[in-house]
Specification:
This protein has ten helices and two strands. With 283 residues, the protein is mainly alpha-helical. It folds into three domains: 132 residues, Up-down Bundle (Four Helix Bundle (Hemerythrin (Met), subunit A)), CATH 1.20.120; 97 residues, Helix Hairpins (Orthogonal Bundle), CATH 1.10.287; 35 residues, no CATH class. It is flat, with a radius of gyration of 25 Å. It is found in: Membrane.
């Protein structure tokens, strides 16, 4: 007489979701180790991601100068795929996904991805892709190696330079998108924006308040744009000057109150009086 069937298949089926969950957990742990780790393998991965990000930024900056043909759109969607993959990986690596999604850098990256996936709908907002410079500058990939080197006092000046460069390219894209002179139209008095280089030249001349006047923006909107660019540009230049010439601050987290910025030769934390052990440049 045959024995009654046992239930190993059900047990195996019950273990499949558990194994699947363990697989997802293992993937998350791996991504966290790669994105936030300090091992040699993590450093190599982070340097690779940083290199790809710099290439993407170069593509964004050069986009207005490239011919809008099939090759351009192939590159555009390839870059969009890379950004989507990077965002998905960062979401899995995040300890709190909801908090990560609310971060300004994440929202900017999602919007940049939207401009690439829907170029016909969001064509006039494509100039905001230059904000990728700003989001990259707010990742630990850039600053962690610098903070561990003898050049760690350069962090504030470099951040100021990044903010200024981001502003220049965002404004250049805005001016080129909304103030480019239509082809075939009669040009008014004064030279108008005819190409991307003209827009960049106008932006730099306005930000530095040089004001040669050989290229101007027409109408009330153009004048208001010039005013805003001058005011914000002067503020960024003042910040850059302060970062270069003011006494150097070192980034070192106080073990008691978590204050980050201290004088380079500080022995005690100014906020709580905790004794600090800030490493020397040669350490």
């Amino acid at each position: 007489m045959d024995a009654e069937p046992t239930e190993p298949p059900e047990q195996s089926t019950a273990q499949e979701p558990q194994r699947s969950g363990e697989g997802r957990s293992g993937l998350r742990q791996t991504l966290r180790a790669l994105y936030h780790g300090r091992t040699a393998a993590a450093r190599r991965f982070q340097i690779s991601v940083l290199t790809i990000d710099l290439a993407i930024i170069a593509f964004f900056v050069a986009s207005p100068l490239l011919p809008q043909g099939p090759l351009f759109y192939w590159l555009d969607y390839s870059v969009a795929a890379l950004l989507a993959l990077d965002l998905a990986a960062r979401a899995l690596a995040a300890h709190d996904v909801a908090r990560w999604l609310r971060q300004p850098t994440t929202l900017v990256d999602v919007f940049i991805l939207a401009t690439m996936l829907a170029p016909l709908w969001l064509a006039n907002l494509g100039f905001l892709r230059a904000l990728r410079i700003w989001t990259l500058a707010h990742t630990d990939f850039v600053w962690t190696p610098l903070r561990r080197s003898k050049y760690r006092t350069w962090e504030d000046p470099v951040r100021a330079v990044v903010s200024l460069v981001t502003f220049l390219f965002v404004v250049t894209g805005f001016v080129y998108t909304f103030f480019k002179h239509p082809e075939g139209a009669a040009a008014p008095d004064g030279k108008v924006i005819e190409n991307y280089v003209d827009a960049l030249y106008f932006t730099v001349a306005t930000v530095t308040t040089t004001g040669f006047g050989d290229i101007t923006l027409q109408g009330t909107a153009g004048k208001l744009t010039s005013v805003v660019v001058m005011i914000v540009g002067i503020s960024l230049f003042v910040r850059l000057a302060q970062a270069i010439f003011r006494p150097s601050k070192v980034t070192y987290r106080c073990p008691k109150c978590a204050l980050l910025k201290h004088d380079y030769d500080a022995v005690h934390c100014k906020a709580c009086g905790e004794i600090l052990c800030i490493p020397d440049e040669d350490d």
